[in-house]
Amino acid sequence: MRAKFALLLLLTAVVSCQKSLFSGTPRWMRMQDRHAYFSEDGDEEKPEKEEEAEAPAAIYVSGLRFPGGVAWRNGDYTGARLVLWKDGEEVLDLPAGHYPEPDRHRIRDGHLWWDDSDGSTTFVYRDGEEMLHYPGDEILRGLLVVDGHIHTLGQRAGSGGFSYRVDGEEVFSHPSAQVLGSFDDREWEGGALMRYGDEVCYCFTLPVRLGDDISAEYHVMKGEQLLKRFPAGTAEKLFDLRVLDGSIYRSQLSGLKSGSLTLFKDDVGQSLGIKDGVTVHLCRLVPFQTGMLVKGYSTQSGTKSYTYWLRGGNGPMQEWDSPLAVADLYVDNPDRSAIYLEGGRVQEIRDGKKNLTITPGRYLLYTPACTALVDGSLYAALSDANGNSHLVLQDGQFQSYNFNGCLTGIRIE
Questions:
Q1: How far is CA 370 from CA 299, 324, 352, in A?
Q2: Which among 51, 53, 56, 83 has a CA at the least distance from the CA of 67?
Q3: Side-by-side strand order, sheet with 149-156
Q4: What is the DSSP string of 275-302?
Q5: Is the dihedral of CA 189, 184, 393, 377 positive or negative?
């Protein structure tokens, strides 16, 4: 299951600037004008479909299940199965393949997609049906279905480069580049892939030697076409790079000081108002209405507290201090719902204005897809760290899922 199954916990990444931290679906409409980075009134007529009752959203939960007695935590993956539940009812139970890793499968539009490899060929499945395969050993960092065509972005192991493919046919590849982004970036439906009209965009980085140092240059691509190149030395540190509505956004340090954290839209930059003397982390780009926010956190030497924030060009949209790591921040979160971690284990859960009762340190979040905030309600797939009594948080209540394995994701559609 490779080393990555060792716990893809979001905030074990408190020391990393490359892991995604937060998630959410932007709905905080009452704050839109004040907090949008670059800033439609709807029709006053009520649409006819308001007369029809909307089907309630379904709650999908995914997991990896093993036969009873299999010590999967010790590396025995015999008989691994992928499982999908819909509103608590099991709807899929399928062989998990060669590498049953929690982050190699994902829920989209009620389907369970996953990628697998036998070491020489990469396979992409949907609900157990093989959708495509192609030569090479890759892990998907991006997947989008556009007009019935499957776009994939696969990273090869080590410095083996990547390939961008459509329906399994290679469109562009590079032998040594690293893809920017992954499915950890849950605000982006395609992971490291982004839609640009009917086209698909992605970004990658290349190591470049500058004198005695190794730096990085960055490429923004649309299909096989280069949209933009950022030469090595463009920024002190570039955290994230994305394409949205035809514009190229980046979050970066424009100088040596933490106070130089800047959000760029194309060539126009705005300071994010971070004070000097602190260290910023993550700084991932989050689409928000017609613009972009940056999500991240700050630490200060000599303190044990984290300051979490979502920021646009007009200052912080959300900001708070915590002595514990926060597993997720959400754009639509006026009540500061959060799951707090220590040593990678869940310590506290705040759902809206109330704290939920949970045994501190008993549960884990195996992937960033294990939490969501929808319409003000917090959802979470909590795996029992040592046993088989897992919990799913929905509508402020815990539902029990008992099996030998772990929960790997939750999605409300």
A1: 25, 19, 18
A2: 83
A3: 138-146, 149-156, 162-166, 169-174
A4: PTTSEEEEEEEEEETTEEEEEEEEE-TT
A5: negative
Identify residue 98 by its one-letter amino acid code. Answer: H
Please tell me the distance from the alpha carbon of residue 104 to that of residue 125, in angstroms, as a whole number.
Answer: 11
Task: Kindly report the three-state secondary structure assignment for every residue of 128-139.
Answer: CEEEEEEECCEE
pLDDT band of residue 50 (cuts 50, 70, 90) is low
How many Å apart are CA 113 and CA 130, to the nearest integer? 10
Nearest partner of 283 among 185, 178, 202, judged by Cα: 185
Question: 61 Cβ partners below 8 Å, 6+ apart?
Answer: 84, 85, 381, 392, 401, 407, 409, 410
pTM equals 0.85
Per-residue model confidence as pLDDT tens digits over 319-378 = 999 999 999 899 989 889 999 999 999 999 999 889 999 999 999 999 999 999 999 999
* Distance of alpha carbon 113 from alpha carbon 253, whole angstroms: 36
Asked whether 41 and 389 are in contact (CB, 8 A), the reply is no
The span from the first CA to the last CA of the chain, in angstroms, equals 29
Cα-only R_g, the chain: 21
Place of tokens 């029809």: 52
Catalogue the E-assigned strands of 53-148: 59-65, 81-86, 89-95, 105-108, 111-117, 121-126, 129-135, 138-146
Determine the Cα–Cα distance for residues 191 and 21; give it in Å rounded to an integer: 14
Q: What is the DSSP letter of 56?
A: P
3-state class (DSSP) for residue 12: helix
Angle at 181 between CA 199 and CA 167, to 5 degrees: 40
Torsional sign, CA 337, 107, 141, 120 = positive
Amino acid letter at 280? V
Compute how many other C-beta atoms are within 10 angstroms of the C-beta atom of residue 210. 12
Give me the mean pLDDT over the 12-33 stretch.
Answer: 30
Task: Let me know if 29 is exposed, middle or buried by CB neighbors in 10 A (0-12, 13-18, 19+).
Answer: exposed
Dig out the tokens for 329 from the structure. Answer: 């921040």
Quote the CA–CA distance of 357 and 347 in Å, as a whole number: 10
Taking alpha carbons only, the member of 110, 73, 82, 63 closest to residue 391 is: 63
**390 in Cβ contact with 406 (< 8 Å):** yes
The Cα 114–Cα 84 span in angstroms is 12
The answer, yes or no, to whether residue 223 has pLDDT greater than 70, is yes
